[in-house]
Please model this.
Amino acid sequence: AQSVAQPEDQVNVAEGNPLTVKCTYSVSGNPYLFWYVQYPNRGLQFLLKYITGDNLVKGSYGFEAEFNKSQTSFHLKKPSALVSDSALYFCAVRDSNSGYALNFGKGTSLLVTP
Amino acid sequence: GAVVSQHPSWVICKSGTSVKIECRSLDFQATTMFWYRQFPKQSLMLMATSNEGSKATYEQGVEKDKFLINHASLTLSTLTVTSAHPEDSSFYICSARSAPTSPLHFGNGTRLTVT
Model:
């Protein structure tokens, strides 16, 4: 089964500092990886995806993610965090066994303090 | 960008009644829609995959007679929670895509509370 793991329940960072939200994957074949963000009582917003190509993927709101095949990781990063970045972040992998639905990690709560 | 509209955003119902949740793709044709359920502070669990004009495919452990899914057009899918019980209280989120390699676009979710 295609799966992702997010080892951190919460990440705290001061505003202006760089942030990293970790994700590792376990897939058979080529991974199709995604990051989404969720604000309270809202659906998910797409941030970025990796299908193929450059290992550094740039996405919305200044976020980027680095695909690392040797470490089977797809960490989300941002050079300078904003308080408004505080939200729940989900890493996901496309599952060919479920009609190409997404299987999500458990989520990481990001708290950016002023 | 692609917009998915989900309605209602919240609903309170009594045990034993049925509730219908609508999911519409507003500016694209959604050949496939997915229904997820999210428990508090937990991840999204896929309930079913819905293809336009076909019966939905349910994930293991999801009762198809309880969670009725209809995808009658390329822009609308509905989830009906039949004979709702308090344990059905949850956050339900739909998502849609236009093609297999397209990103999934999510509705804003429906908070269902069964009293």
In short: The radius of gyration of chain B is 13 Å.
